[in-house]
Amino acid sequence: MQKLLRQPVTLAALKWLLGPDQLLVEYVLDRQASYALEVSNRGMRVHQLPPRKRIAALTRNYLIAVKAGRDSRAQAQALYSALIAPLAASGWNSLIIVPDGSL
User: Fold this and answer.
1) Cα separation of 39 and 95, whole Å?
2) Cα 28 to Cα 41: distance, rounded to the nearest angstrom
3) Is it the case that residue 34 has pLDDT exceeding 70?
4) Buried b vs exposed e over 41-59: b needs ≥16 C-beta within 10 Å?
5) Is residue 70 within a helix (H) or strand (E), and if so which, with residue range?
6) Per-residue pLDDT reduced to its tens digit, 4-22
7) 21-25 — which CB contacts under 8 Å span 24+ positions?
8) Orientation angle between helical segments 73-83 and 52-67, nearest 10 degrees
9) Measuring CA to CA, which residue among 47, 103, 45 is closest to residue 79?
């Protein structure tokens, strides 16, 4: 692994870089609860999500259906409800995702 040669971007700098309709979401999956860190040019919000095991199961079910060529709408909706729906009220047109774990 290479060492990070630059300092991480500060929250203030990230907010400044995002356009008015852009949203960056960093997912943090953990055993007890997971989180979506929502950053826009207006600020940051934290959304609690289902535990890592539940998100991994939803992701796995969706990928199995897609790879098998089956109708995956129900699995996609379940994954959307867990990961994206909590962010839907934010008024964004461009979504930047920083995944974690099974995502």
Assistant:
1) 10
2) 21
3) yes
4) eeeeeebebbebeebbebb
5) none
6) 677 788 899 989 999 888 9
7) 21/91, 21/92, 21/93, 21/94, 22/92, 22/93, 22/94, 22/95, 22/96, 23/87, 23/90, 23/92, 23/94, 23/95, 23/96, 24/96, 24/97, 24/98, 25/87, 25/95, 25/96, 25/97, 25/98
8) 150
9) 103
